[in-house]
Amino acid sequence: MGPKTDSKNLLECVYHWEKNAPDKVYFTQPMGGGDANIKTWTWKEAMDEARRMAAYLKSLDLPDRSHIALCSKNCAYWIIADLAIWMAGHVSIPIFPILTADIVQYTLEHSDSRLLFVGKLDPVWDEMKKGVPTDMPQIAFPLAPENDHTQWDDIIAKHEPLMEPVERTPEETATIIYTSGSTGKPKGAMMSFEAMHKSAQGICESLKTHTDERILSYLPLSHSMERWVVGAHSLYAGFHLFFAESLDTFLQDLQRARPTLFISVPRLWLKFQLGVFQKLPPKKLDRLLKIPILSGIVKKKILTQLGLNHVRFAGSGSAPIPKEVIEWYRNLGLELLEAYGMTENMAYSHCNKPGQVRPGYVGAPWPGVEHRISEDGEVLVKSPGNMTGYYKMPEKTAEEFTEDGFFKTGDQGEIDEMGRLKITGRVKELFKTSKGKYVAPVPIENQINNHPRVEACCVTGSGQPQPYAVVMLSEEAREALTQAGGREAIEGELTEFLERTNGALPHHERLAFLAVAQDEWLPENGFLTPTMKLKRSRLENTYNEMADSWYAEKKADCLAGIAGIL
To answer: Is residue 251 part of a domain?
Structure first.
């Protein structure tokens, strides 16, 4: 049985599955304690809870199209609450589950949210909740930290299902997704029911996904990529969603789900690769993969241990991924499809197609998407998933669109003869050295991220004679620093690697040195956005203060070496 192809919005899709596949399992949710405590919902059970919660929201007599916020890590209740908000005639406002208190306060106030669902959250919530207005009503999911809010289960028990949900039109706002804030305060992208529906329909038809797919949901549902590929896509195609319990149980969660679809971000693909290298050093693995019979056994074993041996489509998005990493996974038998999109177009923009992958390119447009390159090299995209605008920011909205409706992505790029897009840098991330030369940091960072000791890298150096890089080492490398001879060995490896990297770069882009950060870059400490992108302003403000002394120490315009471990 396929999706309701004549549907106008995702709610109509949900009613279709509720009626035609009531006993099919939609959610599998760990409730704490691993395999011993797993809860499932069929479509009928999920919709029963959604209808009961919608009835409660209707009983509050909020003005039509009120804004209701959701702050939780991924779980079944997140999607049920989202559906309930829509069915009651309101608009959902996702809040990232890892933010500072001031951004929580800003988002809730800017979005005019009237109520907050509080869900599955880490201890960081103790700090985050200081940003919640004291008079804001709150409803707690069963997985929420200890609280005295109105409880989800109590509401479900006391209310009959809402049998006549509010009719929602395609052009209405369904949700407002706030940007991750990598370039300043978050902006609220207003997404219509039509944008969410067409984006889900497009990926389903393009990848030929169906009700028997399985996917593990663990990237933030508050971000457009997971909200589209996992949330909206599953509502349209009717497949099974599994949720992760925690970082510590991630491999167990993956193996429980045995996903047929799997998406991740470059940092996690690199972590998976580093985990393999810890057990099988790259040179030894390369030798094994060249032995005909043994090669297939090794590949299958690695993918099975990663929990990815059933995957039909694997995707990477949110940030650039080194082409060498894509080739490495392909060599294991996993065709990793890099995709590209933005909050402002529901992440529905570009993706490599099976059999047409060109490493280094983010692929061709999804169905219905148009693209072109502006005269100054900027990528312009007109997508069915384009937002209707930024909430309460009409002037900013007008700035970001061309007169004929193309969104100005802020990325620089080029298009090949097959219509595949290559991102060459960010318009706003280019910086100028003291010699007047412009440097695009992202391509250089991609090369450095290929080193097995490096987990993340930031290239900077505005106003300096040459750029430099700050790197965060992998967990294994950080441990090696504490061992006898470890520091010297790592410095030697990185120095040799830097010399090779510089040899392939134009003179003005060659790095003066690498600095090795002692800090671990995390969303919790503000070095990364919640979607694992670099917060360049925070990184540059932290390390640029030390840059002058590093340059003086090197006493040369371009000398490959290690500035020091901070």
So the answer is: no
**349 touches 340 (CB < 8 A):** yes
H or E, element range at 472: strand 468-473
Tens digits of per-residue pLDDT, 92-135? 999 999 888 999 999 999 999 999 999 999 998 999 999 999 99
Query: Do 160 and 280 fall within a single domain?
Result: no
352 and 463 in a single domain? The answer is no
Answer yes or no: do 350 and 406 share one domain.
yes
Question: The pTM is what?
Answer: 0.81
Alpha helices in 159-265 (DSSP H): 193-207, 224-226, 233-237, 250-257
* φ and ψ of 140, to 5 deg: -100, 130
Residue 16's pLDDT band (cuts 50, 70, 90): very high
CATH of the domain at 115: 3.40.50.980
Same domain, 417 and 540: no
In tens, the pLDDT along 32-60 reads: 887 889 999 999 999 999 999 999 999 99
Q: Strand 313-316 to strand 261-264: parallel, antiparallel, or no bridges (unpaired)?
A: parallel
List C-alpha distances in Å: 339 to 103, 263, 320, 358, 410: 28, 10, 9, 12, 17
Q: Are strands 562-565 and 514-517 parallel, antiparallel or unpaired?
A: parallel
List the domain range (segments joined by +) for residue 498: 431-565
DSSP letters spanning 246-300:
-STTHHHHHHHH--SEEEE-HHHHHHHHHHHHHHS-HHHHHHHHTSHHHHHHHHH
Q: Which of 384, 410, 426 is the C-terminal boundary of a domain? A: 426
Q: How far apart are CA 11 and CA 20, in angstroms?
A: 14
Q: How many domains does the chain have?
A: 3
**129, 173, 389, 474 from 133: Cα distances, Å:** 9, 24, 26, 39
Comparing CA positions, the residue from 110, 112, 109 lying closest to residue 132 is 109
Residues in Cβ contact with 108 at an 8 Å cutoff, skipping those fewer than 6 apart: 69, 93, 95, 116, 131, 132, 133, 136
Closest CA to 466 of 444, 434, 441: 434
